[in-house]
Every structure is written in structure tokens, then in C-alpha cells.
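Lab meeting, item 3. Inverse folding demo.
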């Protein structure tokens, strides 16, 4: 056991006027299992890089352990997995690696496959298993669940719960609860460390925020009351002071000295009372300034979905989806009723995204005038460019319905969010114009999702992955549609923004077909799940 001490840490990116961290101090134990949370763009990944010594900073970071970052870059993705691991960590024992992979239910034969042929989930498990074999190393694990299905997340959570000595950046609440014993949070004004899992941390934060909000309201009343009392006391004191002059005729003149002394003492006391009231008011103002600095505001999002004229927007019956006549998934049965949130569930690589793209393609091809489907053996036409669907990297083809019946309603307007953010380049203004959405509306939505105004002036290439995802979500919310199709929209999205999106869905009840592995999200919106 040892400590990692962070003292007076300050860091600002070159060319930026906004500090990422300013005079931050805290310490953590190297045996802890730390969950790391905070709004997108607050510097979580930046802090991990500072621990690795990749940037120059002010202050000090003291540690007796070496830091390993997940995921580490793989230069030769065509090499076998074992070669990749041994190239990075030549001193690990083969039997230990097999044992670790077994805990993650990864078969030994994976080690002899080219790294590039592994799914994202398999790659994550292999790299993590290898990293945990290094002694006296502290792991910096950055968003390991983004390529994992629900089952994979549960398995990885169980695996990490048996380990120690890591910082885990994740926005999956259930996942954090399953494997951490301390929370590290990047707040608006500072970084805080607290014992407990995410639920304990969040409950304590809500209590603290509620107390500060209540205290702020009380202080507002106190400040007003004390200010009014000080003004009244000042006026009374001025009136008493003015009364020293006067009463100069005959019978009062011999008592004038004593009377003036009495009035002077009374005036002095009134002025002292005024000063006491003003000091109390100043203390209340200072206390009020110290409140709510770390309270996260989450303004409600708005959406105006179009109402479709039929109850069922999409229906799949014994559908098998493939490429070039070769089946990759199915048969699958589901329907998407108006106002329903339907989540396609299943293991990585089972074809969830292919099914979504087949729906998009079928909608782009149109149906019969009465909303029925084309013949099941007809080849699906490519979806219109407006959806932003990319062709399969493996086949360079669009998915098609190989067997079964896939029906989409006629005249169906769809807003689509892809997993891919690589096309987010240039300015927000150019992006809004390209998608023909209202720029002020999109920026207003981004402000509610915790974008600062300074972010609007930056090219989108400079955004964090979470901020890029928020751009996609804001654009989709600007589009009026009958059906919203979102493919893993919450990857990299911070917890507060997830809650805003959950509230949006509960309030506006859009018809939503999506792929999403965040269990808490599905439960919060009352989604139906279809297992592929």
C-alpha cells in the first residue's frame, strides 16, 4: 500500500485561456478501486495523461508506482494477439495470461488470431488481462465498456471487483457500482475523493446539493433582512445624532451637556449595532458565495417528435440480415409501436447495427403506399445520404434482408445517430448548415448539455469523444421525425447528460429504436428489449 499525492496541480492547454485544473490537491491509495466521473470535457482523460507525465504541469504528483494506460496503442494490428501482448509486456508468464483470460471467458485460441480480427469487446478483455499481470503498476482504465454488450459489462465488472489498484473512467452507473470502492469526481471547482461506490457517492452529492440549495435560500432571506435592519438602524442613528443640536432655551440649557452625552452614547450604540448587522450581512454574503459551486445543473431538454398516422412504424418477422446474400444475424422478430422505446440487445457481433441499417435501408427504399413491405426477396436500396449510414467495413456493402419480412411505414421520417463520430470536423455552424438544422436551437441544446460558449468557437476535431456524441444527439433532437434510431448513443456521455436524455424520453415519449447497453438507462426509460 502506498499513496499517490497530488498537490497544487494546475494545468492549461497551450493556446487556451481556460485552466483545466487550478490548484487541485488530494491523495489516493494505490490499493483502492477508484471510479472516476465528471461531466464531459472536465479533464478526466487529461488527468490520466498528467499521471503518465505526458504533459507539463504546475504543482506536484508523487507516486511510488508506475502507471499503465488502457487502452494502450497497438501498432501492428495484423500481428497475432500473443505477439502484440508479448511485444508490450515481454516478462509476463504464458500460464498467467491464460488464467486471466479464463476469468474473462476469453478462449485461448484468441491468442493466435490477428488482433484486428477481434471484436472491440474481445480486444478490451485481452488488453486488460495482460495489464493486470504487471506488478507494482497502477492501471488507468479509460472507458472500457464502450465496446461491450450488457453481458460483457457484467463479466468485466465482476473481474474488476476482484482486482485493486486502478482508476476507472466510466459513465455506466451499474458498472461502477459493481466494481469500485471509492469515487474520484471532477467537479466544477475541484476534485474530490469519497469512499463508496457510485450510488453512495451520488446519494451523498444529492444530499449535499440539496442542503446547499436550502442554505442558499435561507442566506438570501438573511442578507435581505440584515440589510434592511442595517438601513433602519443607520437612519435611527442619524436622527439621534441630529437631535444633539437644539433645545437651547432657558430651563434646558443647564442640562444640555448631560443630554448631549446621553444622545452621543445612544448614537454610538446605534452605529455599533449597524456595524454588527453589516458584518453579519457580509459573512452571510461570503458564505453564500461558497455555496453551489459544485452543483451540477441539468436543464430539461425538449423534443417535438412527429406523430405517425399508424400504430406500428416498423415490423420484423423472421428477418435474417446479411451482406451479399450471406446471413450474419437472425431470425429476429420485433415491432416498434408509436411512442415505444425499443432496445436491440445481444452479444457483440450479433448484428444489432446491421438490423438497424437494414431498417434504414428499407425505409429509404420506401414501402408500398399503404405502409406495407416490399417482397422479402427484394434487394434493399441504399439509404439516403441524409442518414449518414456507413457501409460495412468488412464487406463494403449495405446490409440487406436475406429472409423474412421487414416492414416500415410509408412516408416515415427518421432521425439517425451513428456510432461513428469521425465526420465531425470543422465548425458547428458548418455542421448545422450541412444537416439543415437550426444553428441557434442546436447550440441551445448543447448549452443545456453542459457545453461552454467557448466550445462553440473551437473546431469539432478538438472536442472530447463525449462532446462529439453530444453534437450528434443535439442534431438529432433538432430534427422532427416519426422515428428516432440511435446506435449506442450514450458511449462517452457523462452521467448527468444521460439523466437529461432519460428525462427527455420519459417526458416527450418519442418512438425510439436503439442499441444501448447501459442497464440503468433502459430501466429509467421503461424500454422494451429484444434479444438478437
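The presenter then showed the designed sequence:
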Amino acid at each position: 500500500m502506498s499513496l499517490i499525492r497530488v498537490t497544487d496541480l494546475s494545468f492549461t492547454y497551450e493556446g487556451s485561456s481556460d485552466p483545466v485544473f487550478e490548484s487541485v490537491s488530494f491523495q489516493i491509495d494505490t490499493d483502492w478501486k477508484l471510479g472516476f466521473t465528471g461531466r464531459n470535457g472536465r479533464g478526466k482523460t487529461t488527468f490520466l495523461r498528467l499521471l503518465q507525465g505526458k504533459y507539463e504541469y504546475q504543482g506536484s504528483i508523487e507516486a511510488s508506482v508506475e502507471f499503465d494506460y488502457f487502452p494502450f496503442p497497438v501498432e501492428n494490428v495484423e500481428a497475432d494477439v500473443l505477439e502484440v501482448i508479448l511485444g508490450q509486456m515481454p516478462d509476463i508468464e504464458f500460464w498467467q495470461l491464460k488464467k486471466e483470460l479464463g476469468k474473462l471467458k476469453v478462449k485461448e485460441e484468441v491468442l493466435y488470431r490477428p488482433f484486428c480480427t477481434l471484436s472491440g469487446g474481445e480486444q478490451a478483455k485481452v488488453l486488460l488481462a495482460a495489464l493486470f499481470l504487471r506488478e507494482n503498476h497502477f492501471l488507468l482504465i479509460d472507458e472500457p465498456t464502450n465496446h461491450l454488450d450488457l453481458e460483457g459489462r457484467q463479466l468485466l465488472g465482476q473481474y474488476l471487483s476482484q482486482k485493486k489498484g486502478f482508476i476507472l473512467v466510466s459513465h455506466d452507473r451499474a458498472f461502477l457500482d459493481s466494481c469500485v470502492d471509492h469515487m474520484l469526481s471532477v467537479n466544477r471547482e475541484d476534485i474530490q475523493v469519497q469512499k463508496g461506490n457510485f450510488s453512495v457517492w451520488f446519494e451523498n452529492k444529492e444530499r449535499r446539493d440539496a442542503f446547499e440549495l436550502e442554505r442558499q435560500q435561507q442566506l438570501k432571506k438573511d442578507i435581505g433582512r440584515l440589510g434592511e435592519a442595517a438601513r433602519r438602524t443607520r437612519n435611527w442613528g442619524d436622527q439621534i445624532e441630529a437631535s444633539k443640536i437644539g433645545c437651547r432655551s432657558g430651563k434646558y440649557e443647564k442640562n444640555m451637556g448631560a443630554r448631549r452625552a446621553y444622545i452621543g452614547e445612544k448614537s454610538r450604540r446605534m452605529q455599533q449595532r449597524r456595524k454588527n448587522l453589516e458584518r453579519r450581512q457580509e459573512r452571510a454574503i461570503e458564505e453564500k458565495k461558497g455555496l453551489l459551486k459544485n452543483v451540477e445543473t441539468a436543464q430539461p431538454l425538449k423534443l417535438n417528435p412527429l406523430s405517425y398516422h399508424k400504430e406500428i412504424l416498423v415490423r420484423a418477422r423472421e428477418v435474417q440480415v446479411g451482406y451479399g446474400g450471406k446471413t450474419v444475424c437472425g431470425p429476429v422478430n420485433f415491432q416498434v409501436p408509436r411512442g415505444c422505446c425499443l432496445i436491440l440487445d445481444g452479444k457483440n457481433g450479433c448484428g444489432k447495427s446491421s438490423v438497424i441499417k437494414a431498417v434504414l435501408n428499407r425505409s429509404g427504399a420506401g414501402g408500398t403506399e399503404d405502409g406495407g413491405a416490399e417482397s422479402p426477396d427484394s434487394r434493399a436500396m441504399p439509404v439516403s445520404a441524409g442518414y449518414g449510414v456507413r457501409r460495412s467495413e468488412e464487406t463494403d456493402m449495405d446490409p440487406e434482408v436475406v429472409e423474412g419480412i421487414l416492414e416500415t411505414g410509408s412516408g416515415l421520417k427518421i432521425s439517425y445517430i451513428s456510432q461513428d463520430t469521425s465526420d465531425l470536423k470543422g465548425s458547428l455552424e458548418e455542421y448545422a448548415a450541412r444537416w439543415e438544422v437550426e444553428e441557434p436551437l442546436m447550440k441551445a441544446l448543447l448549452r443545456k448539455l453542459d457545453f461552454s460558449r467557448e466550445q462553440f468557437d473551437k473546431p469539432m476535431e478538438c472536442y472530447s469523444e463525449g462532446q462529439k456524441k453530444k453534437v450528434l444527439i443535439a442534431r438529432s433532437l433538432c430534427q422532427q421525425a416519426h422515428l428516432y434510431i440511435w446506435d449506442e448513443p450514450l458511449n462517452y456521455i457523462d452521467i448527468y447528460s444521460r439523466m437529461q436524455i432519460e428525462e427527455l424520453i420519459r417526458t416527450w415519449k418519442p418512438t425510439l429504436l436503439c442499441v444501448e447497453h447501459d442497464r440503468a438507462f433502459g430501466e429509467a426509460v421503461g424500454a422494451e428489449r429484444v434479444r438478437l
